[in-house]
Each structure stands twice: as structure tokens, then as C-alpha cells.
């Protein structure tokens, strides 16, 4: 249970009622007051408090979503079920034989759903938190039992820093048709600011210094018509247009590859705020443009092979 902390007597009574309502429940936990994520692993800075049931450590559970089981260590990994709709939206966009790269993969919910529900050829997951990657590896074994070898064999799990992994893949000439980039929130990302301060690149969906570093690393591993699902953070007044994020991506791509990106979709991801008046947003983009009669055109003007043509989803 991730809710505001109640007085001890109220919390204990609530936990008892929750446990009594479902015989499958074994423990009820809640974050302490002021709990936040911390460090490169995006894990809780303080352990969850046990309100009822056996206080076990490690606190590992299995989350079920869209027919897929996701193993989560609640005290060591970042995970939110509130992005279930967004995860399904992305999975439904994956076409047959696509190579998919999931950055900041965490416990791998996105990758597992894609592997289980699509005919992609590969889903590579990159996550720096070793506890999260172990959870993902356990989930892959569960996936093998429930969905078969074909689904499980699609998943590649790599425990590494995203920037280091992207650099290694670029050196090998490895490319992907779809990249999920749910980057972590920086200190200024999504801050609501006014006036001259709004020019700060870490505020109001401006991408921030971390954002540009990740974008620079992602671009070399994209196929000519690859789609990137880019996560950013924006203040409430920017919704739903996410104009600063769109501008950041368009201008950054123009500067880095010589052509602006083509925005396919932009919206708030999930219904809950990540901080006061701040929200997680997703902007989908690609570098190539789709010309008349479905002919794909590279930013440099080179025609693309038919096998590289992309099914466009949610294009505005």
C-alpha cells in the first residue's frame, strides 16, 4: 500500500481490514512520511513500514499486468502500476520483427509485456540496478513457463549504465526499430517557472542536461525509421501540448543529426503527479518522415527499403 501515512492505531486497523478482505494477502506496507526515491538505482531512500502481516526482508512481490507477472523488490526498485495504460499503448505499437530497446528498464514491465504480446524479434533491457535486473531475470523465467520459450528468448537483460551500454552498442553497429526511454527525473525537471527562469534547460519540460546526454547516446542506435518513446517531466500549465518538450526534441535532433524529428504523439503518462503540479509525459518521435504513398524518406533525403517502412501509431 503506497498511501499517506496514518496514525499508528488507524494504520494497524486499516491493515487488519485489508488482510481480512482477501485471503491471498500476506503483508500490508506503506512508505514513511516524506519518503522519496534516491540514488542512481531509483530505489526508496527509506524502507517501507510494515503495517500488518509478517515483516519480511527482502520485500519481494509479484505484480500482474496485462497477463504478465512482474517480480518487484519493493524496497530496492522503482515501480509504479499507474503506468499500466501507457505500457499497453506502447506494446500495441510494436510491429512484427521489430527490435526493441528498453532503457532504464527497472523490473522490466514494459519489456515483458512486449515480449509476451507481440511478434517482435528482440527486446533488450538495460538497467543499472542489480536488484531490479535480478527481479527481471526471475520474471523472464516465469514468462518462459507461462508463455513459452519463444517469448522468453526474445528478452535480453543487461545490468549496466545506460550511457555505457548505448556507446557499446553504437560501436558494434547495433540498431533498433523502437527505443523506450523512460529516463529518471532530474532535480529541475518539470519545475514550474516563469519569466527568464523558464529558459533553464532543466525546467518546464526543457529536457535538462541529463536529457540531452541521453538523447545524444540514443540517436546512433536508431534505424532510419525508428520510433523513440521519450519520457520527460512537465509542469501542469504545459499540458496537454507538452510544447517545450516537443521543441527541445525537435531542436536537439536538428542540431545533432541535421534534421528535426517528426513528433508522432505527446500526452501525459499516467494520471498521477510526480511532484506538486508536475507530471510525467511521453512524446513519441522519429527522425525519418513518411512521404506520399507511404514512401519512407531519411532526413538526408535517401529512400529507405520496404523492410524499413514503419507503421505509424497515434500520429497527430
Automatic annotation (TrEMBL):
Q: Is Cytoplasm there in the keyword field?
A: no
Task: Write down any Gene Ontology CC term.
Answer: cytoplasm
Gene Ontology molecular function terms on file: tRNA methyltransferase activity
The Gene Ontology biological process terms listed for this entry are: tRNA methylation; wybutosine biosynthetic process
The UniProt keywords, alphabetically, are: S-adenosyl-L-methionine, Transferase
UniProt keyword Protease, yes or no: no
According to the record, the residues making up region (Disordered) are 179-205
Signal peptide from the UniProt entry: none
Question: TRM5/TYW2-like methyltransferase domain: from which residue to which, for each copy?
Answer: 61-162
Which superkingdom heads the taxonomic lineage of this protein's source?
A: Eukaryota
Q: What is this protein called?
A: TRM5/TYW2-like methyltransferase domain-containing protein
Amino acid at each position: 500500500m503506497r498511501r499517506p501515512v496514518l496514525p499508528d492505531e488507524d494504520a494497524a486497523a486499516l491493515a487488519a481490514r485489508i488482510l481480512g478482505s482477501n485471503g491471498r494477502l500476506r503483508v500490508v506496507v506503506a512508505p514513511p512520511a516524506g519518503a522519496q526515491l534516491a540514488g542512481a538505482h531509483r530505489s526508496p531512500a527509506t524502507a517501507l513500514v510494515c503495517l500488518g502481516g509478517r515483516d519480511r526482508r527482502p520485500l519481494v512481490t509479484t505484480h500482474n499486468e496485462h497477463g504478465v507477472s512482474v517480480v518487484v523488490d519493493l524496497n530496492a526498485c522503482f515501480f509504479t502500476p499507474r503506468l499500466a495504460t501507457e505500457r499497453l499503448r506502447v506494446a500495441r505499437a510494436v510491429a512484427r520483427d521489430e527490435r526493441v530497446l528498453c532503457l532504464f528498464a527497472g523490473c522490466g514491465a514494459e519489456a515483458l509485456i512486449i515480449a509476451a504480446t507481440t511478434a517482435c524479434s528482440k527486446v533488450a533491457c538495460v538497467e543499472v540496478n542489480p536488484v531490479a535486473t535480478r527481479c527481471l531475470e526471475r520474471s523472464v523465467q516465469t514468462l518462459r513457463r507461462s508463455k513459452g520459450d519463444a517469448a522468453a528468448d526474445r528478452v535480453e537483460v543487461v545490468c549496466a549504465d545506460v550511457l555505457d551500454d548505448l556507446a557499446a552498442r553504437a560501436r558494434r553497429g547495433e540498431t533498433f526499430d523502437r527505443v523506450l526511454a523512460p529516463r529518471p527525473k532530474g532535480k529541475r525537471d518539470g519545475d514550474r517557472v516563469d519569466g527568464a527562469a523558464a529558459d533553464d534547460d532543466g525546467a518546464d519540460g526543457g529536457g535538462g542536461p541529463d536529457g540531452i546526454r541521453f538523447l545524444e547516446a540514443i540517436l546512433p542506435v536508431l534505424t532510419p525509421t525508428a520510433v523513440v518513446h521519450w519520457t520527460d517531466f512537465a509542469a501542469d500549465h504545459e499540458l496537454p501540448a507538452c510544447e517545450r518538450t516537443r521543441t527541445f526534441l525537435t531542436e536537439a535532433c536538428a542540431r545533432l543529426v541535421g534534421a528535426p524529428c517528426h513528433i508522432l504523439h505527446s500526452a501525459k503518462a499516467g494520471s498521477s503527479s510526480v511532484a506538486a503540479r508536475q507530471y510525467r509525459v511521453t512524446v513519441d518521435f522519429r527522425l525519418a518522415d513518411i512521404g506520399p504513398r507511404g514512401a519512407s524518406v531519411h532526413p538526408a533525403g535517401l529512400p529507405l527499403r520496404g523492410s524499413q517502412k514503419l507503421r505509424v501509431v497515434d500520429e497527430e
